[in-house]
Amino acid sequence: MKQWFAAGLLVLAVGYTAYGLSTLTLLTSSGRPAAGFFPLVIGVLLILSCAVNLWGDLREWIEAKQTGIVAVHQADPEAEAKADALGVDAHAIDGGPEFGRDVLIAFLYICGFVGLLNLLGALLAMMVFMFIFLFTFNRPHVVSNLIYSVALPGFLYGLFKILLNASLPVGPLGF
Known about the structure:
Layout: H1 2-23, H2 37-67, H3 77-86, H4 99-120, H5 122-137, H6 142-163
Helix pairs in contact: 1-2, 4-5, 5-6
C-alpha cells in the first residue's frame, strides 16, 4: 500500500511541475528568474523527494516479497522519549496506527485551504489554515500555536507579496 501512495504522490508532483512549466513564466525578458522560477524549483525538489521515497518503499516491498518477512515499523524509543519530554504527540513519527488518519486530516485541511484562498485572501487563509492545523496536531500549546499562526503567514505574505511582488489572492479586507 505504501508504494502505491508514494507512486501517487510522485505522479502528483510530476503533474504539478508539468502544469507549472506550461503555465508559468520562468525567465523575464532580461533573463532574470521570473515568478514561475520558484514553483519550478519546488516542483523539481518535490519530484526528487517523492522518487527517493518511492524507491525506498519499492525496495522494502521487493525485499518483503523475496524473504516473506514484512518489515514492522516501530517508533524509535529515543525519539518517543524526546517527544514526550517536549509534550509533543508523536504517535505518527514513524508511522503509527493513526498515521493514515493524520494524513487524511492534513489532506482535507490543505483542500480547505485552497478553497479558502479566494474567499479570504492569501494572508487570512494561511492564518486560518495554520491555526486549525496546529490546533489539531499540537493542541496543548495554544499560545505558541497562535504566535506561529500569525508569524509564519505574515512572513510568507511579506516575502511573496512585498519582496517578490508575487500575485496572491486578495480577500475582502484587501490583503
